[in-house]
Amino acid sequence: MSPFTRLPDLALRTYGGAVVAASDESFAEREALIRPGRPEFRPHTFGPKGQVYDGWETRRRRGPGHDWAIVRLGLPGIIRGVIVDTAWFKGNYPPYASVEACAAEGHPSVDELSGWVEIVAKSPLSGDAVHEFPVADPRRFTHVRLNIFPDGGVARLRVHGEVVPDRTFLDGLTVDLAALENGARVVSCSDEFYSSPNNVIAPGLARHQAEGWETARRRGGGNDWLIVALAGPGMVAVAELDTANLIYNAPGAASLSGIDARRASLDDAGAWFPLLPRTRLQPDTRHRFRLDDVRTVTHVRLDIYPDGGLARLRLLGALTRTSDPITFD
């Protein structure tokens, strides 16, 4: 897999993405393009429109032109790579595809979208395959348009990148400084055997264990941990550690520490200071703690003891300098 696949899928439905328009969806609905999880397939399962596919499928085009679908990104940002997955489409996949993107402020209608630029050139596709396309354009985008030539079916569209929120909206407000949608990101993690650590800062509530972060069972010493680069330098007032859905594999305890990475390296153990001491956790419980430390932090380290999982981590506070965001290499 390409390195960009480790970045969040900006178009994911559970992150607020939506397929807002499509030229045609005669055989299978457009909304399937951004569903979470791998596409499923049951052979010889027929409905009124033919074989049922877990994807978007258009009718056979008899005239000129091509089919397309427009996706509003749930998390606007810089796109680093796109995946066009034709899983299970073997005799009805499009032979070519391209991807365009645009940036629009506010809540535009489809007809108001303009300024489209090509981020993936027209490229050949094969059936039942995952196609990865790196993207080099450094601009922030809010929408993408998948073009397929001339017609056919695509199971999933993934749009991986770095979240870039509208920072003026966050200025002066109490916000979740650790939220993926606000530009935070997990930059380091001890273990991600069962699920991605970025899940722990995802929008919304985790519906099941796979939508949180869970580590393997630790058989030696030590403990598991992750480090979150916050949306920007800020002061954390409230910490929320949610072990929802983790009934037999929640950590026994957890602690939080902070650092201002503008003044010290993350590798400098002495520069980290405690925000929340080691505290007992309960399974399947939303834990909330008021924090008394008023120092500015750019990164927060979560330690869990000794292992296990966490559904969500929320760090509520205020940005101290919205003009000085955290950047990633």
Structural summary, described in words:
By secondary structure, the chain is an all-beta fold. It has one helix spanning 167-170, and strands at residues 18-22, 46-47, 50-51, 56-57, 67-85, 96-102, 117-124, 130-134, 140-149, 153-154, 156-163, 175-176, 185-189, 213-214, 224-242, 253-259, 273-280, 286-290, 297-305, 309-310, 312-319. The chain folds into 2 domains: 3-163, Sandwich (Jelly Rolls), CATH 2.60.120.260; 167-319, Jelly Rolls. The protein is built from 1 helix and 21 strands. Strands 12, 13, 15, 16, 17, 18, 19 and 21 form an 8-stranded antiparallel beta sheet that branches. Strands 1, 5, 6, 7, 8, 9 and 11 form a 7-stranded antiparallel beta sheet that branches. The chain is globular and about 65 Å long.
Number of domains: 2
Main beta sheet, described?
8 strands, antiparallel
Beta-strand portion reads 35-45%
| Class from helix and strand fractions | mainly beta
Per DSSP E runs of 2 or more residues, the count of β-strands stands at 21
* SSE string, helices as H and strands as E: EEEEEEEEEEEHEEEEEEEEEE
Q: Give me the number of helical elements.
A: 1
Q: Flag low-confidence runs.
A: 322-329
**Helical amount among residues, as a percent range?**
under 10%
